[in-house]
Amino acid sequence: MNEIIIRDIRSVDHKLVRMIEKLERRNLGREASINQWLIPVIIRYGKFIVAQKDGDDPDIVGVCELIRSYKSETCAFVHSFYIDKAYRRKGIGKKLLEEVISNLKKDGFKEIELTVDPRNKAANHLYKKFGFERIDFRKNEYGRGINRDLMKLEL
Ligand SMILES: CC(C)(COP(=O)(O)OP(=O)(O)OC[C@H]1O[C@@H](n2cnc3c(N)ncnc32)[C@H](O)[C@@H]1OP(=O)(O)O)[C@@H](O)C(=O)NCCC(=O)NCCS
Fold first, then answer.
1. Does any ligand 1 atom lie closer than 6 A to the CB of residue 139?
2. Dist. CA 92 → ligand 1 center (Å)
3. Which residues contact 25 (CB under 8 A, 6 or more apart)?
4. How far apart are the first and last CA of the chain?
5. What is the arrangement of strands in the sheet containing 133-138, beginning at the earlier edge strand?
6. Is 118 in the pocket of ligand 1 (CB under 6 A)?
7. What is the mean pLDDT of the chain?
8. H or E stretch including 52?
9. Which domains are present in the chain?
10. For the segment 27-84, what is each residue's pLDDT rounded down to a tens digit?
């Protein structure tokens, strides 16, 4: 496998947006995916950090979408975090999260928050490994029966 590099997407490129739409659907399902109407908004006004295979053609294998909290300007919220199915359990999630954390520290953030399905073993293991702590339970957060734990990391 080519080396995996982590980078910020800083400009809206329609080929890239289409590639991310496909990745979203494959990894998060139709309901939880964002599309061509929101991907450019997060690229331009939030932060879009990806893991990609090194090479001429950008082949994205992992995505982290971030927004800044309106309630606390030192808090960043992870809207989505995933590694493409074919590339899981190879340490890419750890590599991406490590970069995301150091990137946000450099940007002056003091807290990162995210929500996770309490039954999601892989994600809970990863977040706890990096020091995230459960600070709340949000029942029906994304619809009836779709509960989430609110996790927080102090930087
Ligand atoms: C959660 C996710 C991002 C992990 O990415 P990954 O690249 O497979 O993770 P890594 O290979 O870096 O492994 C990270 C740690 O999690 C563990 N892990 C990974 N998958 C696991 C699984 N299915 N069950 C238990 N532990 C798991 C690894 O063993 C590793 O821990 P270790 O260092 O203590 O051995 C990936 O499974 C994913 O994209 N899932 C679907 C989307 C999702 O659930 N996103 C989170 C939403 S909040």
1. no
2. 9
3. 33
4. 32
5. 4-8, 47-53, 59-68, 75-83, 111-116, 148-154, 133-138
6. no
7. 96
8. strand 47-53
9. 4-154 (3.40.630.30)
10. 999 999 999 999 999 999 999 999 999 877 779 999 999 999 999 999 999 999 999 9
**Two tokens, residue 110:** 């003091």
Query: For ligand 1, what atom is nearest to the CA of residue 117?
Result: 48
- Helices 92-106, 121-129: axis angle to 10 degrees equals 50
Note the pTM of the prediction, 2 decimals.
0.96
CA–CA separation, 23 and 76 (whole Å): 23
pLDDT at residue 55, as a whole number? 79
**What is the rounded CA–CA span in Å between residue 134 and residue 97?**
17
Nearest protein CA to atom 25 of ligand 1, as residue: 122
